[in-house]
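Field reference: sequence -> structure
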Amino acid sequence: MPIVGILAFVLAVALVVVAGVWAATTLSSGGKHTAATKKASPSGSSSSGDGASAGAGAVYPYGADVGLKSPLRTGDCVRAVWTGTAFASRPKVGVVSCAHGVPDGQVMAVDAAKDFGDARDHGGERCAGDVKGVVGALADAGVYALTPTEAGFEAAGGGTACLVLGRHAPIGGAIGRFRSPGSNVWTTEMSVGDCWLYVDHTTYFTATLTDCADQHTDQVIGSVTAPKAMAFQDALRRANTLCGNRFASTWAPGSDRSVFGYLSDESNWKAGFDSVVCTVGKADRSRTTGAISSSATTP
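Structure field:
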């Protein structure tokens, strides 16, 4: 599903994900900087019914409409198909591979309630607090508390699954603490504080997550929402400017650092992912070590 500076401008190059290789789209007039994206597979259909069980011996912790026969665990990656308005209805949920399943999001915590009433009345509130930092660090994510039904409470272990899901496009991979240095990160899963290494492979690039103490080219500092009337190609050309207007004065006030902007692909843009992920790095795009603060100095 999920990226300008001084290098030569390459306009709107679109590549295809093949055998784990990224799809890429050229960013702005500042240089050859691209946005990595994974493509989601077609959504599955949702099942009917809202009971806790269906069929002899079948128990659904969250109800038959959700479709899961086993409780979710912290770290599970999921696809979610909304039965109504996103984040306001009960989704059909399936567990998928974090690395290959193009997940909509991930279970970041499971809130254990003392009884069904506690889960129903307070599980969602506790989930929101538990994952607030993760949601706030992503460009376009929300929290959904998947509470057990009364009949499924015991099968769920009393747990409310705290899901962090993409609002308009699949997040596409693991997020937060479930990632490790050396893994590739997509634009949609880049979080504030991430440091990553831009590696140019001529026809595509990778963004490899690193510890900020190690060599990297970019540090994620936030995101901006493109103006509603802005077309995708305009956003590509103006990504640096959009991020620079918001962050350059505090993150790159001198000439040695610059602020860069990264987009997801056009299909995600049309789906509503109109966020530009903003990073800071050396103006000449060389590697650096150490996290920087908003004053653009090393701590």
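Note: Residues 86 and 288 are 40 Å apart (CA to CA).
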